[in-house]
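job 3f2a | input accepted
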Amino acid sequence: MDFNKEYSEKFDELRKNRVRVSFHKYGSVADNYGKGFVQAIPTLEKCLDKYKATGNTEYLCDLANYAMFEFMYPQHPKGHFRATDSRESAGIVGLSVNEANGKFRKNYSSRQTVLSKKNERKNRQINMGDYIFYRKKN
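job 3f2a | predicted structure (138 res):
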């Protein structure tokens, strides 16, 4: 695995720089989020909307920082951290490369793979809620 293709140190550095600047502009994260002056999740959602509208990835850096602030100072009434497995995952939208190639082990996935009987020899049908993907067999 080439970790540089799996993780972005640049993204982390850009996020850290924004936290440093924001400290001087707005005050400490501990005061703003820990004392409830600023709400992290609604602010995060505003950043996502701006990214969707503009495509400017700076908003993703900001979004990640607000997620981190919520992690550090949870404002959700049930805020906590508990590691979960794939059965409790929020899931993804789309089809992962390993799923498409049949390499995804079922015990890691809560999704169901359905083979279409009439297309069994030609295509593999994968049904995920409202999405149905067809992949030609090699």
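job 3f2a | Residues 9-26 form the longest helix (18 residues).
job 3f2a | closed
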